Amino acid sequence: SSIPPVRIIVFTSRRKLKADISAAFPSLTADELTELVPNKEELNVVKIYAHKGDALTLYVLHKNPLFFELEKRLYPTVYVLWRYPALLPTFRTWPPVLQKLVGGADLMLPGVVVPSSGLPEVKRGDCCSVTLVNNRAPVAVGSAAVSSGEMRSLGMKGRGVCVLHAYMDNLWAFGDKSAPPSLPDAEGEGLEVNGEEYEADDIEEEEVEKCEEEEQEEQEEQERTPGAKVTNQARSGLEELSLAEQEEERGDGEEEANQDDLKMPQEIMDALLLRCFLHALKSKVKKSELPLLTSTFLRNHMFSCCPSGTQLDIKKSSYKKLSKFLQAMQKQHNLVRVRELTKGVESIVEVDWKNRELRYFKVPEETDDEASPAPDRGDGAEPPYRPPEITALYSVSSRLEPLFLDAKKRKGTILQPEEVRHIVTEYVKNNELVDENNKNYVTINPTLCDCLLEKSEYQEVESLKWDDLFSRALGRMQECYQVVYPGHAPIRKKGHMEPIDISVASRGSNKKVTLIKNLEVYGLDPAAVGTALQRRVQASSVLQPIPGSKDKVLVQIQGNQIHQVGNLLIDHYQIPRKYIQGLDKAPKGGKKK
Protein backbone atom coordinates (compact mmCIF):
# COMPACT_ATOMS: atom_id res chain seq x y z
CA SER A 1 0.00 0.00 0.00
CA SER A 2 1.09 3.60 -0.49
CA ILE A 3 0.42 6.86 1.31
CA PRO A 4 0.53 10.09 -0.75
CA PRO A 5 1.32 13.38 1.01
CA VAL A 6 -1.17 14.57 3.63
CA ARG A 7 -3.54 17.28 2.40
CA ILE A 8 -5.20 19.96 4.57
CA ILE A 9 -8.97 20.30 4.06
CA VAL A 10 -10.04 23.77 2.91
CA PHE A 11 -13.22 25.46 4.15
CA THR A 12 -15.51 24.36 1.26
CA SER A 13 -14.42 20.73 1.59
CA ARG A 14 -14.83 20.98 5.36
CA ARG A 15 -18.41 22.17 4.93
CA LYS A 16 -19.15 19.29 2.53
CA LEU A 17 -17.61 16.80 4.97
CA LYS A 18 -19.85 18.12 7.74
CA ALA A 19 -22.88 17.67 5.50
CA ASP A 20 -21.82 14.12 4.60
CA ILE A 21 -21.28 13.19 8.26
CA SER A 22 -24.63 14.71 9.22
CA ALA A 23 -26.39 12.74 6.48
CA ALA A 24 -24.66 9.48 7.42
CA PHE A 25 -25.14 9.94 11.17
CA PRO A 26 -28.25 12.09 11.73
CA SER A 27 -28.22 11.56 15.51
CA LEU A 28 -25.23 13.95 15.81
CA THR A 29 -26.19 17.46 16.96
CA ALA A 30 -24.81 20.65 15.39
CA ASP A 31 -22.49 21.17 18.37
CA GLU A 32 -21.20 17.61 18.13
CA LEU A 33 -20.55 18.06 14.42
CA THR A 34 -18.58 21.23 15.09
CA GLU A 35 -16.60 19.40 17.77
CA LEU A 36 -15.76 16.61 15.32
CA VAL A 37 -15.01 18.94 12.39
CA PRO A 38 -13.90 22.26 13.94
CA ASN A 39 -13.80 25.31 11.69
CA LYS A 40 -10.37 26.63 12.68
CA GLU A 41 -8.32 23.58 13.66
CA GLU A 42 -6.21 21.74 11.09
CA LEU A 43 -8.06 18.80 9.56
CA ASN A 44 -6.15 16.50 7.21
CA VAL A 45 -7.22 14.06 4.53
CA VAL A 46 -5.04 11.04 3.73
CA LYS A 47 -5.52 8.70 0.76
CA ILE A 48 -4.52 5.09 1.38
CA TYR A 49 -4.44 2.34 -1.20
CA ALA A 50 -4.73 -1.12 0.33
CA HIS A 51 -2.92 -4.11 -1.14
CA LYS A 52 -5.99 -5.19 -3.15
CA GLY A 53 -6.33 -1.76 -4.72
CA ASP A 54 -9.19 -0.49 -2.53
CA ALA A 55 -8.96 3.28 -2.14
CA LEU A 56 -9.57 4.51 1.41
CA THR A 57 -9.81 8.15 2.46
CA LEU A 58 -8.96 9.02 6.07
CA TYR A 59 -10.08 12.25 7.77
CA VAL A 60 -7.57 13.04 10.51
CA LEU A 61 -7.80 15.53 13.40
CA HIS A 62 -5.04 15.89 16.02
CA LYS A 63 -3.26 12.90 14.41
CA ASN A 64 -6.25 10.62 15.08
CA PRO A 65 -8.29 9.27 12.15
CA LEU A 66 -11.94 10.20 12.77
CA PHE A 67 -13.69 8.74 9.71
CA PHE A 68 -12.72 6.60 6.76
CA GLU A 69 -14.48 6.57 3.42
CA LEU A 70 -14.81 3.31 1.50
CA GLU A 71 -16.76 3.13 -1.77
CA LYS A 72 -18.26 6.59 -1.14
CA ARG A 73 -19.54 5.57 2.29
CA LEU A 74 -18.36 7.06 5.59
CA TYR A 75 -17.51 4.92 8.62
CA PRO A 76 -16.42 6.26 12.04
CA THR A 77 -13.23 4.96 13.66
CA VAL A 78 -13.09 3.71 17.24
CA TYR A 79 -11.63 7.09 18.25
CA VAL A 80 -14.96 8.76 17.32
CA LEU A 81 -17.08 5.99 18.82
CA TRP A 82 -15.30 6.25 22.17
CA ARG A 83 -16.61 9.85 22.33
CA TYR A 84 -20.06 8.95 20.97
CA PRO A 85 -20.63 5.26 21.85
CA ALA A 86 -24.34 5.42 20.94
CA LEU A 87 -23.66 6.69 17.41
CA LEU A 88 -24.25 3.27 15.80
CA PRO A 89 -26.39 0.19 16.51
CA THR A 90 -24.28 -2.02 18.74
CA PHE A 91 -23.71 -5.77 19.04
CA ARG A 92 -22.06 -7.11 22.20
CA THR A 93 -19.64 -10.00 22.41
CA TRP A 94 -17.31 -11.64 24.93
CA PRO A 95 -13.77 -10.29 25.53
CA PRO A 96 -11.98 -13.41 24.12
CA VAL A 97 -13.61 -12.68 20.73
CA LEU A 98 -11.71 -9.38 20.46
CA GLN A 99 -8.47 -11.17 19.57
CA LYS A 100 -10.28 -12.85 16.67
CA LEU A 101 -11.62 -9.50 15.41
CA VAL A 102 -8.16 -7.94 15.61
CA GLY A 103 -6.79 -10.92 13.69
CA GLY A 104 -9.17 -10.20 10.79
CA ALA A 105 -12.26 -12.27 11.67
CA ASP A 106 -15.84 -11.08 11.31
CA LEU A 107 -18.28 -11.25 14.25
CA MET A 108 -20.18 -14.53 14.06
CA LEU A 109 -23.71 -14.73 15.49
CA PRO A 110 -22.99 -17.49 18.07
CA GLY A 111 -20.67 -15.00 19.81
CA VAL A 112 -23.28 -12.21 19.97
CA VAL A 113 -24.51 -11.54 23.51
CA VAL A 114 -28.19 -10.60 23.37
CA PRO A 115 -29.33 -8.09 26.03
CA SER A 116 -32.72 -8.32 27.73
CA SER A 117 -34.02 -5.61 25.35
CA GLY A 118 -33.22 -7.83 22.35
CA LEU A 119 -31.08 -7.31 19.26
CA PRO A 120 -30.69 -3.81 17.75
CA GLU A 121 -32.81 -3.34 14.64
CA VAL A 122 -30.57 -3.22 11.57
CA LYS A 123 -30.90 -3.89 7.85
CA ARG A 124 -28.36 -5.77 5.77
CA GLY A 125 -25.42 -3.43 5.10
CA ASP A 126 -26.22 -0.99 7.92
CA CYS A 127 -23.15 0.47 9.66
CA CYS A 128 -22.83 -0.91 13.21
CA SER A 129 -20.32 -1.29 16.03
CA VAL A 130 -19.15 -4.08 18.33
CA THR A 131 -18.63 -3.75 22.09
CA LEU A 132 -17.46 -6.12 24.82
CA VAL A 133 -19.57 -7.25 27.77
CA ASN A 134 -19.45 -4.76 30.70
CA ASN A 135 -17.96 -1.91 28.60
CA ARG A 136 -19.94 0.28 26.19
CA ALA A 137 -16.79 1.53 24.44
CA PRO A 138 -16.87 0.06 20.88
CA VAL A 139 -13.91 -2.05 19.78
CA ALA A 140 -14.87 -2.65 16.13
CA VAL A 141 -16.79 -1.09 13.23
CA GLY A 142 -18.40 -2.82 10.28
CA SER A 143 -21.64 -3.49 8.44
CA ALA A 144 -24.45 -5.91 9.22
CA ALA A 145 -24.12 -9.11 7.21
CA VAL A 146 -27.87 -9.77 7.50
CA SER A 147 -30.89 -7.95 8.97
CA SER A 148 -31.96 -8.39 12.60
CA GLY A 149 -34.97 -10.42 11.46
CA GLU A 150 -32.74 -12.76 9.47
CA MET A 151 -30.42 -13.16 12.47
CA ARG A 152 -33.32 -14.38 14.57
CA SER A 153 -34.75 -16.60 11.82
CA LEU A 154 -31.32 -18.19 11.28
CA GLY A 155 -31.20 -19.19 14.96
CA MET A 156 -28.25 -16.85 15.61
CA LYS A 157 -25.96 -18.84 13.32
CA GLY A 158 -23.69 -17.56 10.58
CA ARG A 159 -22.01 -14.21 10.01
CA GLY A 160 -23.35 -11.24 11.99
CA VAL A 161 -21.11 -8.24 11.35
CA CYS A 162 -18.59 -7.85 8.51
CA VAL A 163 -15.80 -6.09 10.42
CA LEU A 164 -13.90 -3.35 8.58
CA HIS A 165 -11.88 -1.80 11.40
CA ALA A 166 -11.03 -2.85 14.96
CA TYR A 167 -9.20 -1.57 18.02
CA MET A 168 -5.47 -2.49 17.76
CA ASP A 169 -5.51 -2.85 13.96
CA ASN A 170 -3.36 -0.73 11.61
CA LEU A 171 -5.99 1.98 11.21
CA TRP A 172 -6.12 2.37 15.01
CA ALA A 173 -2.30 2.41 15.04
CA PHE A 174 -2.39 5.37 12.61
CA GLY A 175 -3.64 7.45 15.58
CA ASP A 176 -2.31 7.93 19.11
CA LYS A 177 -2.84 4.23 20.00
CA SER A 178 -4.90 5.04 23.09
CA ALA A 179 -6.89 2.32 24.85
CA PRO A 180 -10.70 2.19 25.01
CA PRO A 181 -12.23 4.17 27.91
CA SER A 182 -14.10 2.27 30.60
CA LEU A 183 -17.82 2.95 30.05
CA PRO A 184 -19.98 0.89 32.47
CA ASP A 185 -22.55 -1.30 30.74
CA ALA A 186 -25.89 -1.32 32.54
CA GLU A 187 -26.93 -4.29 30.42
CA GLY A 188 -23.91 -6.30 31.56
CA GLU A 189 -25.99 -8.49 33.87
CA GLY A 190 -28.66 -10.89 32.71
CA LEU A 191 -27.31 -11.17 29.17
CA GLU A 192 -28.31 -14.01 26.88
CA VAL A 193 -26.32 -16.22 24.56
CA ASN A 194 -28.62 -17.96 22.08
CA GLY A 195 -31.58 -17.55 24.42
CA GLU A 196 -29.93 -18.75 27.66
CA GLU A 197 -28.90 -16.47 30.52
CA TYR A 198 -25.27 -16.45 31.74
CA GLU A 199 -23.15 -14.45 34.13
CA ALA A 200 -20.21 -12.79 32.39
CA ASP A 201 -17.66 -14.57 34.59
CA ASP A 202 -19.21 -18.00 33.97
CA ILE A 203 -19.00 -17.87 30.17
CA GLU A 204 -17.44 -21.01 28.73
CA GLU A 205 -14.91 -21.00 25.92
CA GLU A 206 -17.34 -23.08 23.87
CA GLU A 207 -18.94 -19.79 22.72
CA VAL A 208 -15.65 -18.65 21.20
CA GLU A 209 -15.12 -22.08 19.69
CA LYS A 210 -18.62 -21.92 18.13
CA CYS A 211 -17.65 -18.61 16.52
CA GLU A 212 -14.48 -20.19 15.13
CA GLU A 213 -16.43 -23.16 13.74
CA GLU A 214 -18.99 -20.84 12.11
CA GLU A 215 -16.22 -18.70 10.66
CA GLN A 216 -14.42 -21.76 9.27
CA GLU A 217 -17.64 -22.98 7.63
CA GLU A 218 -18.24 -19.51 6.13
CA GLN A 219 -14.71 -19.39 4.74
CA GLU A 220 -15.04 -22.84 3.18
CA GLU A 221 -18.34 -21.82 1.60
CA GLN A 222 -16.79 -18.62 0.20
CA GLU A 223 -13.89 -20.60 -1.25
CA ARG A 224 -16.43 -22.76 -3.10
CA THR A 225 -18.30 -19.66 -4.33
CA PRO A 226 -16.54 -17.63 -7.08
CA GLY A 227 -15.98 -13.98 -6.21
CA ALA A 228 -15.71 -12.49 -2.71
CA LYS A 229 -17.74 -9.71 -1.19
CA VAL A 230 -16.42 -6.18 -1.54
CA THR A 231 -16.66 -5.70 2.20
CA ASN A 232 -14.44 -8.71 2.80
CA GLN A 233 -11.92 -7.37 0.30
CA ALA A 234 -11.96 -4.04 2.05
CA ARG A 235 -11.47 -5.73 5.41
CA SER A 236 -8.52 -7.68 4.03
CA GLY A 237 -7.13 -4.47 2.61
CA LEU A 238 -7.39 -2.70 5.94
CA GLU A 239 -5.77 -5.65 7.68
CA GLU A 240 -2.67 -5.43 5.54
CA LEU A 241 -2.19 -1.67 5.41
CA SER A 242 1.51 -1.01 5.75
CA LEU A 243 1.82 2.12 7.87
CA ALA A 244 5.51 2.61 8.65
CA GLU A 245 6.71 0.24 11.38
CA GLN A 246 3.28 -1.10 12.35
CA GLU A 247 3.85 -4.38 10.48
CA GLU A 248 6.03 -5.52 13.39
CA GLU A 249 3.30 -4.73 15.90
CA ARG A 250 0.83 -6.75 13.85
CA GLY A 251 3.26 -9.67 13.84
CA ASP A 252 3.55 -9.57 17.62
CA GLY A 253 -0.23 -9.35 17.99
CA GLU A 254 -0.76 -12.36 15.74
CA GLU A 255 1.75 -14.41 17.74
CA GLU A 256 -0.12 -13.61 20.94
CA ALA A 257 -3.43 -14.52 19.30
CA ASN A 258 -1.95 -17.84 18.17
CA GLN A 259 -0.81 -18.54 21.72
CA ASP A 260 -4.32 -17.82 22.95
CA ASP A 261 -5.58 -20.49 20.57
CA LEU A 262 -3.69 -23.16 22.50
CA LYS A 263 -6.49 -23.79 24.93
CA MET A 264 -6.07 -25.98 27.99
CA PRO A 265 -9.01 -28.15 29.10
CA GLN A 266 -10.65 -26.96 32.32
CA GLU A 267 -9.90 -30.17 34.19
CA ILE A 268 -6.16 -29.83 33.55
CA MET A 269 -6.18 -26.16 34.57
CA ASP A 270 -8.16 -26.99 37.76
CA ALA A 271 -5.56 -29.62 38.68
CA LEU A 272 -2.71 -27.20 37.95
CA LEU A 273 -4.38 -24.55 40.14
CA LEU A 274 -4.67 -26.97 43.06
CA ARG A 275 -1.09 -28.15 42.65
CA CYS A 276 0.31 -24.58 42.60
CA PHE A 277 -1.94 -23.65 45.53
CA LEU A 278 -0.69 -26.52 47.71
CA HIS A 279 2.90 -25.98 46.58
CA ALA A 280 2.72 -22.27 47.49
CA LEU A 281 1.18 -22.95 50.92
CA LYS A 282 3.72 -25.62 51.78
CA SER A 283 6.93 -24.01 50.56
CA LYS A 284 6.33 -20.26 50.10
CA VAL A 285 3.88 -18.85 52.65
CA LYS A 286 5.04 -18.25 56.22
CA LYS A 287 2.75 -17.86 59.22
CA SER A 288 4.28 -14.42 59.88
CA GLU A 289 3.00 -13.21 56.47
CA LEU A 290 -0.67 -13.65 57.43
CA PRO A 291 -3.01 -11.97 56.77
CA LEU A 292 -1.89 -12.12 53.12
CA LEU A 293 -3.67 -10.33 50.27
CA THR A 294 -5.13 -12.92 47.90
CA SER A 295 -3.80 -10.98 44.88
CA THR A 296 -0.29 -11.00 46.39
CA PHE A 297 -0.57 -14.72 47.13
CA LEU A 298 -1.42 -15.42 43.49
CA ARG A 299 1.17 -13.08 41.99
CA ASN A 300 4.15 -13.72 44.27
CA HIS A 301 3.61 -17.34 45.33
CA MET A 302 1.29 -19.37 43.08
CA PHE A 303 2.76 -18.15 39.79
CA SER A 304 6.30 -18.98 40.93
CA CYS A 305 5.18 -22.55 41.69
CA CYS A 306 3.94 -23.15 38.16
CA PRO A 307 5.98 -25.92 36.44
CA SER A 308 8.18 -24.83 33.55
CA GLY A 309 6.47 -25.04 30.18
CA THR A 310 2.98 -24.43 31.62
CA GLN A 311 1.03 -21.25 32.29
CA LEU A 312 -1.41 -20.64 35.11
CA ASP A 313 -4.60 -18.95 33.88
CA ILE A 314 -7.58 -18.88 36.24
CA LYS A 315 -9.90 -17.72 33.46
CA LYS A 316 -9.32 -21.03 31.71
CA SER A 317 -10.34 -23.01 34.80
CA SER A 318 -13.88 -23.88 35.92
CA TYR A 319 -13.57 -21.26 38.70
CA LYS A 320 -12.93 -18.26 36.40
CA LYS A 321 -12.07 -16.06 39.39
CA LEU A 322 -9.46 -16.31 42.16
CA SER A 323 -12.14 -15.53 44.78
CA LYS A 324 -14.26 -18.51 43.68
CA PHE A 325 -11.24 -20.81 43.70
CA LEU A 326 -10.30 -19.73 47.24
CA GLN A 327 -13.90 -20.19 48.40
CA ALA A 328 -13.70 -23.79 47.17
CA MET A 329 -10.38 -24.27 48.99
CA GLN A 330 -12.05 -22.94 52.14
CA LYS A 331 -15.41 -24.75 52.00
CA GLN A 332 -14.55 -28.04 50.29
CA HIS A 333 -10.93 -28.59 51.33
CA ASN A 334 -10.79 -26.63 54.63
CA LEU A 335 -7.28 -25.47 53.74
CA VAL A 336 -7.57 -21.71 54.31
CA ARG A 337 -9.86 -19.08 55.75
CA VAL A 338 -10.46 -15.98 53.60
CA ARG A 339 -11.92 -12.72 54.90
CA GLU A 340 -12.63 -9.28 53.50
CA LEU A 341 -10.55 -7.13 55.87
CA THR A 342 -11.21 -3.96 53.87
CA LYS A 343 -14.12 -3.36 51.52
CA GLY A 344 -13.60 -5.21 48.25
CA VAL A 345 -10.16 -6.57 49.23
CA GLU A 346 -9.84 -10.19 50.38
CA SER A 347 -7.00 -11.66 52.41
CA ILE A 348 -5.98 -15.14 53.54
CA VAL A 349 -6.16 -14.84 57.34
CA GLU A 350 -5.57 -18.45 58.35
CA VAL A 351 -3.97 -21.62 56.95
CA ASP A 352 -4.66 -25.09 58.34
CA TRP A 353 -1.08 -26.35 58.36
CA LYS A 354 -2.26 -29.70 59.82
CA ASN A 355 -4.66 -30.36 56.95
CA ARG A 356 -4.15 -33.91 55.72
CA GLU A 357 -4.13 -32.88 52.05
CA LEU A 358 -1.47 -30.24 52.70
CA ARG A 359 0.67 -32.46 54.92
CA TYR A 360 0.81 -35.28 52.38
CA PHE A 361 1.43 -33.01 49.39
CA LYS A 362 4.93 -33.63 48.02
CA VAL A 363 6.68 -30.49 46.78
CA PRO A 364 8.08 -31.13 43.27
CA GLU A 365 11.87 -31.21 43.11
CA GLU A 366 12.85 -28.42 40.73
CA THR A 367 15.78 -26.09 40.38
CA ASP A 368 15.30 -22.41 41.11
CA ASP A 369 15.29 -21.68 37.40
CA GLU A 370 12.63 -24.32 36.75
CA ALA A 371 10.50 -22.99 39.56
CA SER A 372 10.58 -19.52 38.05
CA PRO A 373 7.76 -18.34 35.79
CA ALA A 374 8.20 -19.97 32.40
CA PRO A 375 7.96 -16.76 30.34
CA ASP A 376 10.94 -15.33 32.20
CA ARG A 377 13.03 -17.92 30.39
CA GLY A 378 11.39 -17.62 27.03
CA ASP A 379 11.32 -21.02 25.34
CA GLY A 380 11.71 -23.90 27.80
CA ALA A 381 14.57 -25.26 25.68
CA GLU A 382 16.69 -22.15 26.10
CA PRO A 383 19.22 -21.85 28.94
CA PRO A 384 18.28 -19.59 31.87
CA TYR A 385 19.13 -15.92 31.46
CA ARG A 386 22.42 -14.70 32.90
CA PRO A 387 23.08 -10.96 33.11
CA PRO A 388 26.10 -9.54 31.25
CA GLU A 389 29.23 -8.66 33.21
CA ILE A 390 29.68 -4.88 33.05
CA THR A 391 33.03 -3.30 33.97
CA ALA A 392 33.73 0.44 34.21
CA LEU A 393 36.87 1.40 32.25
CA TYR A 394 38.82 4.60 31.59
CA SER A 395 40.71 5.79 28.51
CA VAL A 396 43.90 7.88 28.80
CA SER A 397 43.15 11.44 27.62
CA SER A 398 45.66 13.75 25.92
CA ARG A 399 45.83 15.90 29.06
CA LEU A 400 46.81 12.96 31.28
CA GLU A 401 49.18 11.30 28.78
CA PRO A 402 52.36 12.71 30.47
CA LEU A 403 51.30 11.04 33.74
CA PHE A 404 51.11 7.62 32.04
CA LEU A 405 54.21 7.82 29.81
CA ASP A 406 56.44 6.04 32.34
CA ALA A 407 54.02 3.09 32.27
CA LYS A 408 54.11 3.21 28.41
CA LYS A 409 50.41 4.00 28.20
CA ARG A 410 49.58 6.35 25.35
CA LYS A 411 46.50 8.41 24.61
CA GLY A 412 43.49 6.15 24.01
CA THR A 413 44.78 3.24 26.09
CA ILE A 414 41.88 1.71 28.02
CA LEU A 415 42.51 0.81 31.66
CA GLN A 416 40.58 -0.58 34.61
CA PRO A 417 40.24 1.67 37.70
CA GLU A 418 42.68 -0.55 39.64
CA GLU A 419 45.29 -0.14 36.89
CA VAL A 420 44.89 3.64 36.99
CA ARG A 421 45.41 3.68 40.77
CA HIS A 422 48.49 1.43 40.45
CA ILE A 423 50.10 3.55 37.69
CA VAL A 424 49.46 6.82 39.56
CA THR A 425 50.82 5.30 42.81
CA GLU A 426 54.00 4.07 41.05
CA TYR A 427 54.47 7.50 39.45
CA VAL A 428 54.25 9.21 42.87
CA LYS A 429 56.68 6.76 44.50
CA ASN A 430 59.20 6.78 41.63
CA ASN A 431 59.27 10.59 41.71
CA GLU A 432 59.43 10.65 45.56
CA LEU A 433 56.34 12.86 45.83
CA VAL A 434 54.93 11.42 49.09
CA ASP A 435 54.88 14.18 51.72
CA GLU A 436 57.59 13.41 54.29
CA ASN A 437 55.67 15.01 57.16
CA ASN A 438 52.26 13.49 56.34
CA LYS A 439 52.18 10.36 54.16
CA ASN A 440 48.46 10.87 53.50
CA TYR A 441 49.40 13.72 51.15
CA VAL A 442 51.17 13.84 47.77
CA THR A 443 53.32 16.80 46.73
CA ILE A 444 52.28 18.35 43.43
CA ASN A 445 55.07 18.51 40.82
CA PRO A 446 54.77 20.28 37.41
CA THR A 447 53.40 17.16 35.66
CA LEU A 448 50.71 16.58 38.29
CA CYS A 449 49.93 20.30 38.23
CA ASP A 450 49.30 20.29 34.46
CA CYS A 451 47.38 17.03 34.53
CA LEU A 452 45.18 17.37 37.62
CA LEU A 453 44.83 20.98 38.75
CA GLU A 454 42.60 23.75 37.45
CA LYS A 455 44.35 26.96 36.35
CA SER A 456 43.01 28.80 39.40
CA GLU A 457 44.72 26.22 41.63
CA TYR A 458 48.22 26.44 40.13
CA GLN A 459 49.52 28.94 42.71
CA GLU A 460 47.42 27.74 45.65
CA VAL A 461 47.47 23.92 45.79
CA GLU A 462 50.81 22.37 46.75
CA SER A 463 49.63 18.90 47.79
CA LEU A 464 46.62 16.59 47.50
CA LYS A 465 45.29 13.67 49.54
CA TRP A 466 45.65 10.25 47.89
CA ASP A 467 41.87 9.86 47.41
CA ASP A 468 41.61 13.31 45.83
CA LEU A 469 44.55 12.48 43.57
CA PHE A 470 42.89 9.28 42.32
CA SER A 471 39.43 10.83 41.86
CA ARG A 472 40.90 13.75 39.88
CA ALA A 473 42.84 11.36 37.65
CA LEU A 474 39.75 9.24 36.91
CA GLY A 475 37.61 12.36 36.47
CA ARG A 476 39.87 13.68 33.71
CA MET A 477 39.89 10.43 31.75
CA GLN A 478 37.40 9.33 29.07
CA GLU A 479 34.80 7.00 30.61
CA CYS A 480 34.34 3.63 28.88
CA TYR A 481 32.83 0.29 29.73
CA GLN A 482 33.26 -3.35 28.89
CA VAL A 483 30.29 -5.69 28.59
CA VAL A 484 30.60 -9.47 28.39
CA TYR A 485 27.49 -11.38 27.36
CA PRO A 486 27.52 -15.09 28.32
CA GLY A 487 29.23 -17.08 25.59
CA HIS A 488 30.47 -14.00 23.70
CA ALA A 489 33.74 -12.07 23.45
CA PRO A 490 34.08 -8.86 25.51
CA ILE A 491 32.80 -5.65 23.90
CA ARG A 492 34.35 -2.28 24.79
CA LYS A 493 32.64 1.04 24.14
CA LYS A 494 33.12 4.69 25.06
CA GLY A 495 30.72 6.50 27.37
CA HIS A 496 28.25 5.09 29.90
CA MET A 497 26.36 1.80 29.74
CA GLU A 498 22.85 2.81 28.70
CA PRO A 499 20.48 2.04 31.62
CA ILE A 500 17.18 0.20 31.34
CA ASP A 501 14.67 3.04 31.30
CA ILE A 502 11.30 2.67 33.08
CA SER A 503 8.72 5.42 32.74
CA VAL A 504 4.98 5.96 33.16
CA ALA A 505 2.83 7.58 30.47
CA SER A 506 -0.82 8.57 30.29
CA ARG A 507 -3.17 7.06 27.73
CA GLY A 508 -6.64 8.51 27.37
CA SER A 509 -8.37 10.36 30.19
CA ASN A 510 -7.36 8.33 33.24
CA LYS A 511 -5.23 5.44 32.00
CA LYS A 512 -1.57 4.91 32.80
CA VAL A 513 0.90 2.57 31.14
CA THR A 514 4.43 1.58 32.09
CA LEU A 515 7.10 1.73 29.34
CA ILE A 516 10.37 -0.26 29.52
CA LYS A 517 13.22 0.52 27.10
CA ASN A 518 16.79 -0.69 26.44
CA LEU A 519 16.22 -4.30 27.53
CA GLU A 520 18.19 -5.52 24.47
CA VAL A 521 21.32 -3.73 25.75
CA TYR A 522 21.41 -6.25 28.61
CA GLY A 523 20.71 -9.28 26.43
CA LEU A 524 17.08 -9.48 27.54
CA ASP A 525 14.30 -10.55 25.17
CA PRO A 526 11.59 -7.83 25.37
CA ALA A 527 8.90 -10.37 24.41
CA ALA A 528 9.92 -12.70 27.26
CA VAL A 529 10.02 -9.81 29.76
CA GLY A 530 6.61 -8.58 28.59
CA THR A 531 5.08 -12.05 28.99
CA ALA A 532 6.63 -12.47 32.46
CA LEU A 533 5.23 -9.10 33.57
CA GLN A 534 1.84 -9.94 32.07
CA ARG A 535 1.67 -13.04 34.25
CA ARG A 536 2.88 -11.24 37.38
CA VAL A 537 0.46 -8.34 37.28
CA GLN A 538 -2.39 -9.87 35.25
CA ALA A 539 -2.42 -6.93 32.83
CA SER A 540 -1.99 -6.81 29.06
CA SER A 541 1.37 -5.97 27.52
CA VAL A 542 2.43 -5.08 23.96
CA LEU A 543 5.70 -4.47 22.12
CA GLN A 544 6.17 -1.24 20.19
CA PRO A 545 9.06 -0.14 17.95
CA ILE A 546 11.08 2.81 19.23
CA PRO A 547 11.02 5.68 16.68
CA GLY A 548 14.43 6.25 15.12
CA SER A 549 15.76 2.86 16.23
CA LYS A 550 15.85 -0.12 13.87
CA ASP A 551 16.58 -2.94 16.32
CA LYS A 552 14.95 -1.83 19.57
CA VAL A 553 11.41 -2.14 20.89
CA LEU A 554 9.81 -1.03 24.13
CA VAL A 555 7.51 -3.05 26.36
CA GLN A 556 4.23 -1.35 27.29
CA ILE A 557 2.10 -2.77 30.11
CA GLN A 558 -1.11 -1.37 31.58
CA GLY A 559 -0.99 0.55 34.88
CA ASN A 560 1.88 1.93 36.96
CA GLN A 561 3.85 -1.32 37.36
CA ILE A 562 7.25 0.14 38.28
CA HIS A 563 7.41 -1.85 41.56
CA GLN A 564 6.84 -5.13 39.72
CA VAL A 565 9.21 -4.24 36.85
CA GLY A 566 11.94 -3.35 39.35
CA ASN A 567 11.43 -6.58 41.31
CA LEU A 568 11.56 -8.67 38.14
CA LEU A 569 14.73 -7.02 36.82
CA ILE A 570 16.61 -6.94 40.13
CA ASP A 571 15.49 -10.16 41.83
CA HIS A 572 14.95 -12.49 38.88
CA TYR A 573 17.23 -11.20 36.15
CA GLN A 574 19.90 -9.97 38.61
CA ILE A 575 20.34 -6.59 36.88
CA PRO A 576 22.22 -4.23 39.26
CA ARG A 577 20.01 -1.40 40.52
CA LYS A 578 22.48 1.25 39.26
CA TYR A 579 21.69 0.17 35.68
CA ILE A 580 17.94 0.71 36.07
CA GLN A 581 16.56 4.23 35.63
CA GLY A 582 13.11 5.34 36.82
CA LEU A 583 12.54 3.21 39.93
CA ASP A 584 11.88 6.43 41.86
CA LYS A 585 8.66 6.94 39.85
CA ALA A 586 6.94 3.98 41.52
CA PRO A 587 3.63 4.81 43.26
CA LYS A 588 4.01 5.43 46.98
CA GLY A 589 2.70 2.77 49.31
CA GLY A 590 2.79 0.20 46.51
CA LYS A 591 -0.64 1.24 45.20
CA LYS A 592 -1.35 0.91 41.52
CA LYS A 593 -2.36 3.98 39.64
UniProtKB/TrEMBL annotation:
Which coarse location class describes where this protein primarily resides? cytoplasm
The record's CDD domains line, in alphabetical order, gives: eIF2D_C (cd11608), eIF2D_N (cd11610), PUA_eIF2d-like (cd21156)
Tell me which Gene3D superfamilies the record gives: 3.10.400.20, SUI1-like domain
In this chain, composition skew of type Acidic residues spans 186-221, 245-259
One Gene Ontology BP term is: formation of translation preinitiation complex
List the Pfam families hit by this protein, alphabetically.
Pre-PUA (PF17832), PUA_elF2D (PF26292), SUI1 (PF01253), SWIB_eIF2D (PF26291), WHD_eIF2D (PF25304)
Q: What is this protein called?
A: Eukaryotic translation initiation factor 2D
Species for this entry: Cyclopterus lumpus
Gene symbol here is eif2d
